[in-house]
Amino acid sequence: MKAKYPHLLVWGNSETFANGNSASVYVCNADGSDLDMDSKEWNEINSFVRQMCGGRYDGWSESYEYGEPGKSDNGTKLDFGTKYLHVENKAPHGSWPSAIKTIKGLLAGEYVFGVLSLDKAIEKAKGYGYSEPTIKKALELI
Question: Can you give the residue range of the structural domain that contains 104?
Fold first, then answer.
């Protein structure tokens, strides 16, 4: 994705647990803003990532239903083992793009606290788990 969409920011992480695993892919614009959900980029990325899911959880029967294996562009069979797969149209929490969004929201009064001063917004952002270096980078880009 980074090669095909160099103008976007992309992160990925995974977790392993008893009887399976999960993966999350986060994507946003270079300025930290969310992608347009109708954009070609979002639809291609979402479609590409979703094909790697190994199945789905059926809440009605409380069981996991395994899906069919996928195929690569050249027809090679791909057997994915990722049980739960998430594609997020945002930067992951704790990243500088997420800090930009949070600080801008705090300054604009989008939270229950009302409009905050920059100092109070920084204090709140630290309380949300953003590190000093992350906040510093975010402030440079606001």
Answer: 96-141
Helices and strands counted in the chain (H then E): 4, 7
The answer to whether residue 50 is domain-embedded is yes
DSSP assignment string, 24-77: EEEEEETTSPPPPTTSHHHHHHHHHHHTTB-EEEETTTTEEEE---EE-TT--E
DSSP, res 82: B
Q: Domain boundary at 47, 64, 88, which?
A: 88
Domain check: are 84 and 114 in the same one? no
Q: Is 11 helix (H, G, I), strand (E, B) or coil?
A: strand
Mean pLDDT by 10 residues, the chain (142 residues): 89 87 90 91 88 79 78 76 86 94 95 95 96 96 88
Identify the residue whose tokens are 């800090």: 99
Write the CB contacts of 4 (distance below 8 Å, at least 6 apart in sequence).
none
In this structure, what token pair is assigned to residue 83? Answer: 């049980």
pLDDT of residue 66: 77
In the chain, the number of structural domains is 2
